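Sample 1 of the test manifest.
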Amino acid sequence: MGDATESWETIAGCKINVLRGGRGAPLLFLHGARGAGVWLPFFKALTENFEVIVPEHPGFGRSDTPEWLDNVGDLANFYLEFIQKLGLREVNLVGTSLGGWIAADLAVRNCDALRSLTLVAAAGIHVPGASKGDLFLWAPEQLVRNLFFDQALAEAMLKQTPDEEERKRQAKNALTLAKLSWQPRLYDPNLRKWMHRIDRPTLIVWGDSDKLIPPVYGPAYRDLIPGAKLLVIKNCGHLPHVEKTAELAGAVVKFIEEAKR
Amino acid sequence: MKFYMIHLMPYADLDLSYDKHHNSAWVTLPNSYFDPQNGPKLYNRYIDELVLADELGFDGVCCNEHHQNAYGLMPIPGVIAGALVRETKRCQVAVLGRALPLLTYPLSVAEEYAMLDNISNGRLIAGFVRGIGAEYHSTGVNPAESHDRFHEAHDLILQAWSRPGPFAFEGKYYHFQYVNTWPRPVQQPHPPVWIPSQGSRETIEWASHPSRKYTYLQTFSPVDQLARFMAMYQQQAQKYGYEASPQQLGWATPVYVSDSDEAARREARPHIEAFYNKFLRMPVEMLLPPGYLSLASITSVTDKIRSGPAAGGYTIEDLSAKGMIICGGPDSVGQQLETYQKKVGFGKLIAMTQFGTLPHDLTVKSMQLFAREVMPRLRHVGEEQPPVRAHAAE
């Protein structure tokens, strides 16, 4: 795992896998639907400035699937308890896609332990008339292609042939994703009603070519959170942390730095 | 053996070249492919064919539930069953079945089935299913909850029939302060329950449980799978300490009879190939949304399905060899069924005598030949206890 360490934490009876690396203020990264468990270049890029903490959500990857897991609210409460149990303070919370939804829900519930919030291509809300892509009906190849603007990245990902263990993890992730987001599709109608409660510096990030959650969701999210800023990344799909690693990492470091003042 | 006719009521006037533009006859095939001018003719023709089965001496007629597709035009099967309980006089009427997890108010099934049982004076067979995966795309119901919702809705319905009301029901998905179903079913404590399935160990363990002993139907599967799942049921029953009766085991499959094997194959070919290659066509993502199958079975089954019926490309020769249609002259159809019955031990045959684009005249001819020439010679088989099976199921 290179410069990351792996540990297991048991919170609310659920054992989860956690990767950590770097030094500095805590940055808690909440992953998207495809899971975590791999120390990505994006995490490495943040380690100079932060202690980067990357848990695998309950129901994903190598983490347990607890009986109590029914909805994104359960995960928001889980991570509030995670932050408390680990004694984290002044947390810079970063969530992408599904993880962005969890992060927004968590921040609506309680911002006390947070220093800043960064939501990248976040699920969680619905904009009337702006349909999301149907990731459950896309064929596997189509799904990968639709996640990226740069099709060379999609090609590279499609060339990887997952082993049996990896396929099992993917099936587990898909099941948990469906449980959390099948209907209403990728959002909670109640979340937007309380988004004004978030009183921490907030950065919204969107790829301008996101085919899963279209870019029009960026301004919609920004307008729901008081004082939030929006960064639109050019030539970028649904996974800015993979497709535009350096640009996103730089923007996150700068945003958090400026938020201190 | 007992004989039932099942109809899917396909949109037989479907433009079969739809697949140049759309990857399935389900969920997303635009409903502009359905011409309202054709609806009345098709529905009434199909009901006539089911009523004919009663007149010909079939033991029962069956309808079922599917949504938003050209494969079967019975999103509300109770409408068809309502017509059948009045228009048939002797035979049983089976709804195979209502897709319980799709419902927000499953007590409607307890009510609907009890009404049908009353109007038919105890001729109803109550089928319960989860629906196929495509249904979850069409209705928005979460497939990850499919198994749990099925079991909870089933328990609720059975209690509504067998427990004195009013009583409260508090489940995870369904909550009722007052369960107090009117009318009560004529058949007490409840109508016979059938469970159609594509085959899974979990379903078989559940259906064969001594507290249920539900009739298990294997639907539209190759004979080797049929044999495997029927043996699994028989062995599971033995584990539970009883011998499964052949009448607990049913096979639903397309059947076509004509004057000779050659004529049967020639007449059935375009229609059965359309059934499997066009009407049943769908990508695996549509058929198996996450959660529809248990995690334990998903990867192996997904691989099988990618190359299975939904993948298309079948010829009638493939289908006959696999037992995915029983087709031929009366003698050969009788022989095939007798052979399969001996091998597998089922006691109910659910014959789909209309499939895909098969027109009315051929449907009627095949049903008449089947009832006259095939049914009598098979009546004596599948009624006794099954022979003790030496070989083990997987």
